[in-house]
Amino acid sequence: MMLKANYPGFKEHKIEHENLTNKVIEFQRSFKKGESLISMDLMVFLKDWLLNHIEGTDKKYKDKLS
User: Fold this and answer.
1) Does any domain span residue 47?
2) Cα angle 29, 31, 33; round to 5
3) Which long-range contacts (CB under 8 A, 24 or more apart) does 50-57 make?
4) Average pLDDT per run of 10 along the chain, which is 66 residues long?
């Protein structure tokens, strides 16, 4: 939808999602190996990322998609 709307911040937005995905995959691998636990730090990170991303970055393009 962003590409279709010619949203100028698409590349940066996509990179944010890729970075989050990579961090979660890295954590999952570590967790499966028994090298890390689900911690409050992880939960806080995910909550903050999602809230800040949705309330900040995602709202920047909503007008372009209307």
Assistant:
1) yes
2) 70
3) 53/16, 53/20, 57/9, 57/13, 57/16
4) 87 92 89 84 85 83 74
The answer to the question of residue 49 being in a domain is yes
pTM of the model: 0.69
Instruction: Answer whether 54's CB lies under 8 Å from 2's CB.
Output: no
For residues 30-63, b (16+ Cβ closer than 10 Å) or e, as one string?
A: eeeeeeeeeeeeeeeeeeeeeeeeeeeeeeebee
Q: Domain of 51?
A: 10-64
Contacts of 23 (CB under 8 A, 6+ apart): none
| pLDDT at site 46 | 86
